[in-house]
Amino acid sequence: MSKPRILVTRQVFPEVLERLRQHFEVDDNQDDALLGAEGLKARLADKDGALTALTEPVTAEVIAAAPHLRAVCNIAVGYNNLDIPALTKAGVMATNTPGVLDETTADLAWALLMASARRLPASERWLRDGQWQGWQLIQWLGADVHGATLGILGMGRIGQAVARRALGFDMKVIYHNRTHLSPEKEAEYQAAWVDKETLLRESDFLVLLLPYSAQTHHTIGAPELALMKPGAHLINVARGGIVDDSALVAALREGRLAGAGMDVFEGEPKIHPGFLGLDNVVLTPHIGSSSKATRMAMAMTAADNLIAALSGRRPPNLLNPDAYKELP
Ligand code: GLV
Q1: Residue 95 lies in a domain
Q2: Among residues 29, 99, 201, 238, which is most buried (max CB within 10 A)?
């Protein structure tokens, strides 16, 4: 029996390809050039499955061009690049990679928070520029992290991992989420649920950890930024588009927010040009999950999902159970 055919849309670790080749005829893209909609349609025409990244919009049009497709396994926890209703309608299973990247992404949220609080990138650039003439009492004054109020918008697994780290900094932790954590979890993290307005008004550091969707588009726009505490810091490690980047640039420029740490951007890899001229924003290129171990675990998880899906087993991280058909 011939092996199912799959497309791997972006470069992956050789170990992942090796594992996939044990099960599939693999069309890889180790050159890592973006395929685009046309490339995706052409390469998926004869494929049974795909290992995708968040850079590939899997739209109804792409799905229609792939009549044999049975599974799309995204190497990401977020899956706003996948048209789930269209995949389900076409009977194509979709999966993501929850769980394996929570801690690493929480680490980066903290890295950005600390860097923003203590103005690390700007002071480092200044030192490298040869501008440091010596120690001064009043020099590069930042904000204290310890003892401050940490607000978390979106208290899923990553939000909770961020909250857990705050215990070591003696912070007051407040969060807003559609559902409340259990009283046991709230006690464990010493975190209190508050309404969104209170979260905006009281947080010294506000970390965003929402999934992106039409409903969460511009969750933080000009009106929300206006409610935030003067001198607060905003951290986005979730998805571009949750923040209205133009409004954030304006708030940072005015100095109403003291700083921001941004790992994701509207329309990335394009960056709002306003950010580039500001010293009070820390910018990283969507590396929330990017430790070697975690990126490997994400790709292997996606591969495991694809192997299960195309061998008739229910993939562990199935997003659209209606697309799963048990073999007779
Ligand atoms: C990365 O952004 C992910 O969703 O895993």
Answers
A1: yes
A2: 238
Domain that holds residue 119: 102-283
308 shares a domain with 232: no
Our answer to whether residue 202 is catalytic in this structure is no
Q: Distance from the CA of 157 to the center of ligand 1, in angstroms?
A: 13
Residue 328 domain-assigned? no
Q: Mean pLDDT, the chain, as a whole number?
A: 97
Q: In 19-148, where do the E strands start and end?
A: 25-27, 49-52, 71-74, 93-95
Residue 15 catalytic? no
**Structure confidence at residue 43 (pLDDT):** 98
Active site residue 239: yes
Peptide bond before 269: cis, by omega within 30 degrees of 0? yes
Query: Which residue, judged by its Cα, is nearest atom 1 of ligand 1?
Result: 76
* Cβ of 288 less than 6 Å from ligand 1: yes
Q: Domain total for the chain?
A: 2
Q: pLDDT class for 328, splitting at 50, 70, 90? A: low
Q: What pLDDT sits at residue 327?
A: 65
- On whether both 40 and 144 belong to a single domain, the answer is no
